[in-house]
């Protein structure tokens, strides 16, 4: 539960889920490096500081939020498992069956007028 | 003159009071309320325990999140029609290059009112309608954390709308109070110097609606954090609640900042302060403050619709949302990043090129979480068992429109492209693909999806599909024409386009404007169909025969809100009237927790009056 | 007062709170007029302001109409607020502490929104401080904005935070006497602070001729101190309410929700003031 050690909280699954936020972080990092290397507009202490802090601060905020939410969600999952509850959003309806077979790839028009 | 006007106004006031009094006394007022009257749930629930006041008083005194959700919805739809009427007039004017049916001043007023109305009086409230009604049901709460703050927040909105629209009511009286012509961005110095108390009224009204939105946001965050049922935690919180949580966090920081900026503008206008004057904070400061609010605002508006689609789309795809956690984390990522991109609206203002470049970087980064969601929706449908109901059609249209709206946004985020396209119709096309193509579409989809819960009846499906197709076609005609207009160089916010052929080719521009006008009227017509469908079906639509109108149980997709609905129906149909509070209230015995579980009542396997066939019965 | 009567409805409570039971209109467990009244009162402030603006820009109305509506709305608003707070929270008070967590959390969120409210003003100030920093009023040129009055006032406000903190601790130790005394001291210090601010405004406007129209700095000064002053005044009102309720013996170590929310608010306002003194008073004259 909440007392889980770090290593367990961020298991493979969770880390895989968090990859989604690593991409924007990577893009921001890319630009930080690019702007550090290629600098056609020259430097000015104030503006250069603002330039980098916009990217750094947003990136850091994203990192922190991703960490916090990842931790909260993963701990909550452990808690649910302990209670033996359903993980899905529809949960609570433990008795609702999962669809068993692969759904057939067919498109039905389920929205016809009711017959009078 | 003035005396006459005053007398007339007083007379109108008396008349309105009389009408209100008459309506309040009408015996069967209650039959107009949802879930009442002939609906499947209705009669039995009213036993000796009707705990809500009768008549119109019920609506003024309600603190029930479901009633407040309905109030928000009605409010938002009134605003939708106001804003829609304004834009149809504008499109009519733009059907030909000259000033044909109105002067520039009136066009500017309509432009301003359309933008402000759609974003602040339709967009935010329609989302609040869904979140009020359904968040407590989805998370297994009795109600909002602060039901009364919820009611206060709603009742601040009507006076806000009256102030925002005031200029239109007073202008015909010739009192010197005209509608504002500032555009929705209210850029200084124009907005600081426009001598017209109508502008002040609009600013005050906006501040009031901002207070309301902030109160609502605090309430939602507190509700989602502290009121969840026992079996709901962060791991199985539904996606709509996640988006509302993120949206509320954005509101919490964005709206108060706008509020302060509005007050500063009011002080500049009325007390000669220097907040946005050249010798003070400078007009650019307004743009910074406005867009520091404004960009989060666009995500405030679009995240919950994304949540709605993420919730509804799987129901008709027969499978769970693909990569649920990706959607959650990317929602949070959008929330954070949206505070670091505001100056992409100011690329052409001459701000420092280094600073500009970093806003481009973050703007490009924010496109990723948006795209991730798109792929998740598409993958959810992939190989799914699609059922093209009206809500589903709106969800699919939403995705399709987001592809265009989102990609045009990424183009605009690139500085060199933006410098060419800024302030052209391209920008108008971009964000309308999003605000109309996504926000309104998701709203419509959710309205259809939940119509059975709110009214206990089913809408007319054929009309709903007509509504969808006309909206979809109209939206794409109108806004694609605008994208092209932008490429041709047509500047936005003009009442006329009788310009020099060197700016843009007049013949093509005229044709495209006419196409856009036709598209706009198609959209308008579609909404009339929809309005008729809603009203007619609310009164006379076929009653539901069970609590699963979408056959969600077959796929194991019977969500919490429908589970709650089922317990309500069982209680009502089974005659256990003492368990049901006033129409649609909670089941008292086991309160909110009941919502999390399909009732084990033996009657759940049938025993209803068969009134209509279920959707998919053939 | 009906505090003791609200007892028999706690049965079905499971951490959630049902709306108060003996509300107006009576007998409707789920309905209340108070939110509507509160909202109309609040909207009345805006309508009053609108009428004032209309009166200044046209000759349709007397100039006093707006302020009159404003004041009338204040009464409506306060009545609504009283009814709402009383029935929503106080009436069900002794049933348990179900509200506490949510209310404290809501206060934290509200303070978060306050950061944004003040933020806009401070951003303006930093904009002028780094940009159009010229045509400064005499007060700034001479360094007299940072007067001994401000310093004394700051010390007073800081002390009031300390007394409030210890009042809360005394409450936790169920030392009622000390709690009430320290609370009274806090309230007194708060009122003295507001008086000091009023005195400063008087000095500046009447004797120094430094007004809100006095260029970029004047806007920042009156905008920020005014906004802060409004917050302190609201804080004093809240402290007053807490004080009265304390006299009625409505608090003890377990029942202290509003004491802790109000003290969070008060500490926040205090912190803003310190920041404000540093950047707006001291920051204006150092490196001038
Ligand atoms: C994929 C992510 C997005 C990017 C990269 C993006 C980028 C941009 C840029 C750069 C502009 C400024 C164009 C100009 O004025 O020159 C813009 C305008 C705008 N965008 Fe987006 N956008 C995105 C998504 C959205 C969303 C989701 C919404 C709405 C819910 C939205 C609403 C708007 C609005 C309303 C404007 C126009 C504001 C105005 O000037 O009146 N955008 N967008
Ligand atoms: Cu933006």
UniProtKB/TrEMBL annotation, chain A:
Bilayer-spanning residue ranges: 18-38, 50-68
Keyword match Transport: no
Source organism, top-level taxon: Archaea
Any matching Pfam family: DUF6684
Positions of the UniProt region annotated as Disordered: 78-116
Matching InterPro entries: DUF6684
Acidic residues bias (residue ranges): 97-116
Name assigned to this protein: Cox cluster protein
Species the sequence originates in: Haloglomus irregulare
From TrEMBL, chain B:
Subcellular localization(s) per the UniProt record: Membrane
Biased amino acid composition, Basic and acidic residues: 600-618
Organism: Haloglomus irregulare
InterPro entries in UniProt: Cyt_c_oxase-like_su1_dom (IPR023616), Cyt_c_oxase-like_su1_sf (IPR036927), Cyt_C_Oxase_1 (IPR000883), Cyt_c_Oxase_su1_BS (IPR023615), Cyt_c_oxidase_su1_bac (IPR014241)
Transmembrane feature ranges: 6-24, 68-90, 116-139, 151-177, 239-267, 298-314, 326-345, 357-378, 390-413, 433-454, 466-490, 510-532
Domain Cytochrome oxidase subunit I profile: 59-551
UniProt topology in membrane: Multi-pass membrane protein
GO MF annotations in UniProt: cytochrome-c oxidase activity; heme binding; metal ion binding; oxidoreductase activity
Ranges for region Disordered: 571-618
Enzyme class: translocase
Protein's name in the database: cytochrome-c oxidase
Record EC number: 7.1.1.9
Gene Ontology terms: biological process: electron transport coupled proton transport; oxidative phosphorylation; respiratory electron transport chain
Pathway entry: Energy metabolism; oxidative phosphorylation
Family listed: Belongs to the heme-copper respiratory oxidase family.
GO CC term (a single one): membrane
Keywords assigned: Copper, Electron transport, Heme, Iron, Membrane, Metal-binding, Oxidoreductase, Respiratory chain, Translocase, Transmembrane, Transmembrane helix, Transport
């Amino acid at each position: 539960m909440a007392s889980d050690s770090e290593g367990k909280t961020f298991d493979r699954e969770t880390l895989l889920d968090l990859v989604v936020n690593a991409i924007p972080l990577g893009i921001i990092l890319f630009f930080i490096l690019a702007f550090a290397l290629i600098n056609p507009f020259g430097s000015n202490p104030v503006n250069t500081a603002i330039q980098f802090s916009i990217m750094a601060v947003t990136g850091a905020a994203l990192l922190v939020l991703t960490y916090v939410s990842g931790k909260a969600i993963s701990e909550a999952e452990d808690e649910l498992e302990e209670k033996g509850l359903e993980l899905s959003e529809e949960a609570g309806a433990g008795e609702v069956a999962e669809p068993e077979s692969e759904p057939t790839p067919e498109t039905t028009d389920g929205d016809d007028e009711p017959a009078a | 003159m003035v005396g006459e006007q005053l007398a007339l106004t007083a007379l109108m006031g008396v008349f309105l009071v009389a009408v209100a009094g008459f309506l309040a006394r009408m015996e069967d007022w209650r039959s107009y309320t949802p879930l009442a009257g002939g609906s499947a749930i209705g009669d039995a629930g009213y036993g000796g325990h009707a705990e809500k006041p009768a008549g119109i008083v019920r609506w003024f005194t309600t603190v029930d999140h479901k009633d407040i959700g309905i109030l928000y919805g009605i409010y938002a739809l009134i605003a939708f029609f106001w804003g829609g009427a304004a834009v149809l007039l504008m499109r009519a004017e733009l059907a030909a290059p000259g000033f044909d049916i109105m002067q520039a001043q009136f066009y500017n007023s309509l432009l301003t009112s359309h933008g402000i109305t759609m974003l602040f009086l339709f967009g935010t409230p329609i989302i609040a309608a869904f979140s009020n009604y359904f968040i407590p049901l989805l998370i297994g709460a009795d109600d909002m954390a602060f039901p009364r703050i919820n009611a206060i927040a709603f009742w601040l909105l009507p006076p806000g709308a009256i102030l925002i629209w005031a200029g239109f009511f007073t202008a015909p009286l010739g009192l010197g109070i005209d509608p504002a012509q500032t555009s929705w961005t209210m850029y200084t110095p124009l907005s600081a110097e426009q001598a017209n108390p109508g502008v002040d009224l609009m600013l005050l009204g906006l501040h009031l609606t901002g207070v309301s939105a902030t109160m609502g946001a605090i309430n939602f965050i507190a509700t989602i954090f502290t009121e969840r049922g026992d079996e709901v935690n962060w791991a199985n919180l539904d996606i709509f609640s996640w988006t509302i949580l993120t949206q509320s966090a954005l509101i919490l920081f964005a709206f108060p900042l706008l509020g302060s900026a509005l007050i500063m503008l009011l002080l500049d206008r009325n007390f000669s302060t220097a907040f946005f004057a050249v010798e003070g904070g400078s007009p650019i400061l307004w743009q910074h403050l406005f867009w520091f609010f404004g960009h989060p605002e666009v995500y405030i508006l679009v995240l919950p619709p994304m949540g709605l689609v993420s919730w509804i789309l799987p129901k008709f795809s027969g499978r769970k949302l693909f990569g649920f956690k990706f959607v959650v984390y990317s929602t949070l990522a959008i929330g954070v990043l949206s505070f670091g991109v505001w100056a992409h609206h100011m690329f052409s203002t001459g701000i420092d090129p280094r600073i500009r470049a970093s806003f481009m970087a973050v703007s490009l980064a924010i496109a990723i979480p948006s795209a991730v969601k798109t792929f998740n929706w598409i993958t959810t449908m992939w190989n799914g068992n699609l059922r093209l109901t009206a809500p589903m059609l709106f969800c699919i249209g939403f995705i399709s429109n987001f592809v265009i709206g989102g990609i045009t946004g990424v183009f605009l985020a690139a500085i060199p492209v933006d410098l060419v396209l800024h302030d052209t119709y391209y920008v108008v096309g971009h964000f309308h693909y999003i605000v109309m193509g996504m926000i309104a579409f998701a709203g419509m989809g959710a309205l259809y999806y939940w119509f059975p819960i709110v009214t206990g009846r089913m809408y007319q499906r054929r009309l709903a599909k007509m509504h969808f197709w006309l909206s979809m076609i109209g939206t794409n005609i109108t806004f694609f024409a605008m994208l092209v207009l932008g490429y041709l160089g047509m500047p936005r916010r003009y009442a006329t386009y009788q310009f020099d052929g060197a700016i843009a080719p007049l013949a093509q521009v005229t044709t495209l404007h006419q196409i856009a006008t036709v598209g706009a009227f198609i959209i308008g017509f579609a909404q009339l169909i929809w309005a008729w469908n809603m009203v007619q079906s609310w009164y006379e639509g076929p009653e539901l025969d069970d609590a699963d109108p979408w056959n969600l149980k077959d796929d194991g997709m019977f969500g919490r809100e429908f589970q709650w609905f089922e317990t309500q129906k069982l209680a009502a149909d089974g005659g256990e009237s003492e368990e049901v509070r006033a129409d649609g209230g909670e089941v008292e015995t086991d309160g909110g927790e009941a919502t999390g579980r399909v009732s084990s009542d033996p009657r759940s396997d049938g025993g209803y009056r068969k009134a209509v066939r279920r959707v998919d019965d053939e | 007062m009906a505090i003791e009567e609200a007892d028999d409805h706690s049965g079905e409570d499971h951490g959630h709170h049902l709306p108060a039971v003996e509300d107006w209109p009576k007998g409707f467990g789920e309905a209340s007029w108070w939110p509507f009244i509160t909202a109309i009162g609040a909207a009345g402030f805006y309508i009053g302001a609108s009428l004032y603006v209309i009166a200044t820009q046209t000759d349709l109305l007397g100039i006093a109409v707006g302020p009159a509506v404003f004041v009338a709305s204040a009464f409506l608003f306060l009545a609504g607020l009283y009814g709402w707070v009383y029935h929503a929270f106080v009436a069900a008070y002794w049933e348990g502490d179900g509200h506490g967590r949510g209310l404290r959390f809501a206060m934290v969120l509200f303070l978060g929104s306050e950061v944004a409210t003040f933020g806009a003003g401070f951003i303006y100030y930093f904009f002028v401080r780094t940009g159009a920093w010229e045509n400064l009023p005499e007060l700034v040129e001479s360094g007299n904005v940072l007067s001994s009055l401000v310093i004394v006032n700051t010390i007073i406000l800081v002390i009031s935070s300390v007394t409030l903190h210890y009042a809360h601790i005394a409450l936790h130790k169920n030392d009622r006497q000390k709690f009430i005394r320290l609370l009274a001291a806090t309230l007194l210090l708060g009122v003295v602070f507001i008086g000091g601010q009023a005195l400063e405004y008087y000095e500046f406007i009447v004797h120094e001729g430094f007004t809100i129209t006095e260029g970029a700095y004047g806007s920042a000064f009156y905008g920020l101190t005014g906004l802060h002053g409004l917050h302190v005044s609201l804080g004093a009102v809240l402290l007053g309410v807490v004080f009265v309720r304390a006299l009625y013996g409505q608090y003890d170590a377990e029942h202290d929700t509003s004491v802790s929310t109000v003290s969070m608010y008060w500490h926040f306002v205090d912190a803003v003031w310190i920041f404000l003194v540093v950047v707006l008073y001291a920051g204006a004259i150092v490196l001038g």
